[in-house]
Amino acid sequence: MRKLMAAIGGSMILAAPLAHADVVGLGASVSYWDSDLSGKAADSGDVVDVENDLNLDNDSNVNASLYIEHPVPVLPNVRLNYTLVEQSGRGRLSADFGGINIGSDVRSDLDLEQLDVTLYYEVLDNWVNLDLGLTARDLSGDLLVREATTGVPASETSVDAVIPMGYLAARFDLPLTGVSVGADGNFISFDGDSLYDFNAYGQYEIAMLQLRAGYRQMSIDYEDGNDRLDVDIDGPFISAGVAF
After folding, report:
1. Separation of CA 191 from chain center
2. How many CA atoms lie within 13 A of 168 on its CB side?
3. Domain count along the chain
4. Which residues contact 216 (CB under 8 A, 6 or more apart)?
5. DSSP state of 13
6. Which of 208, 202, 196, 198 shows the shortest CA–CA distance to 171?
7. Per-residue pLDDT tens over the stretch 32-90
8. Which residues of the chain have pLDDT under 50?
9. SS3 category, 97
10. What spatial distance separates the first Cα and last Cα of the chain, rounded to whole Å?
11. What CATH number should be reported for the domain holding residue 56?
12. Which of 119, 166, 217, 232 could form a disulfide with 76 if both were Cys (CB 3.0 to 4.6 A apart)?
């Protein structure tokens, strides 16, 4: 992890004098992400399939971002991003899990929350835009599985950590049209754990309004003590934002 952070940090230092905003810029957006969940969770050695055994469905999705860019070339720009995924469902276990016997009907709830603080530099800023930086992700995830009739026994799988990640964003503007396409993402892989969060989109901008539609995929393979989440969350999204 130290090697990854050093490499990215060195790239950021080299990139800093290449491009910077002429004036202070501020932007914000909110989005709806129609996501599906697949993968596995582990609790003290017991493993459950979150899609087939728990039948989790998307209940709510909150996504919001805020960024500020400035003309000081030495200092990085700042982006904040918040994501909340809540899913629940009823299913039947195909194996023992967390003290609940195989074949039991279960009720399950997954809450996945993350706050990203990203420091980045603009490497290119014209019809081709390229940003490079580092993200600190505050990740918190809880999966609660209960016997459907009585609610007991219950098994809780939890992960909670602040994780450094690389950040890369690219956008290509079609001049004089307000149309652009782009992609951005955060990523890290270290010591058997990995997190990836990427999206690709098309954007239309008119005046200060930015409208986007695209596809986002997030992959979490993270172990916290005896608990482990190895899940993929992906699906289309739409967003609306403003830029000043």
Report:
1. 20
2. 10
3. 1
4. 33, 35, 197, 198, 199, 234, 235, 236, 237
5. H
6. 202
7. 999 999 999 998 889 999 999 999 887 678 899 999 998 887 899 999 999 999 999 99
8. 1-16
9. strand
10. 36
11. 2.40.128
12. 119
